[in-house]
Amino acid sequence: MALAGLIVAGAHRVEINALTIGTVAAFLQLVRRFFQPLQDLSDKFNTLQQAMAASERIFRLLDTPQADRGTSPDVTLSLRLRSG
Q1: Cα torsion through 24, 25, 31, 36, rounded to 10
Q2: H or E stretch including 49?
Q3: What is the pLDDT, as a whole number, of residue 80?
Q4: What DSSP string describes 1-24?
Q5: Whether 27 contacts 2, CB under 8 Å
Q6: How far apart are the C-alpha atoms of 10 and 41, rounded to whole Å?
Q7: pLDDT tens profile 68-84
Q8: CA atoms of 13 and 25, how far apart (whole Å)
Q9: CA atoms of 45 and 37, how far apart (whole Å)
Q10: Contact between residue 19 and residue 13 where contact means Cβ atoms under 8 Å apart
Q11: Helix 21-63 to helix 2-15 angle, to the nearest 10 degrees?
Q12: What are phi and psi of 31, to 5 degrees?
């Protein structure tokens, strides 16, 4: 929304010859470059939050006693290899 407002305001100033198109384009690029590190930081924080939530679920599963998991300790898995 803010970017659209800048474009409209810049277009109006270009229309009345107060600014050039190049100046408006340079300002828009400057604004994008200013906010890019903040966006990168928020993306990294989002990834950190997802990892923390996943690790909490994993640790909760690991802390669950064996009897509550629904499997008995004497269950073994057998793998059969098929020759093609």
Answers
A1: 170
A2: helix 21-63
A3: 61
A4: -HHHHHHHHHHHHHHTTSS-HHHH
A5: no
A6: 29
A7: 555 555 555 555 666 65
A8: 12
A9: 12
A10: yes
A11: 180
A12: -65, -45
What the block records as the tokens of 54 is: 């996943």
Say which residue the tokens 């690029």 belong to.
29
Give the tokens for residue 66: 């064996």
Instruction: Label residue 3 by pLDDT band (50, 70, 90).
Output: confident
Residue type, 80: R
pLDDT tens, 15-68? 999 999 999 999 999 999 999 999 999 999 999 999 999 999 999 988 888 765
User: What are 62's two structure tokens?
Assistant: 């690991």
Residue count of the chain: 84
CA angle 57, 54, 40 (to 5 degrees): 160
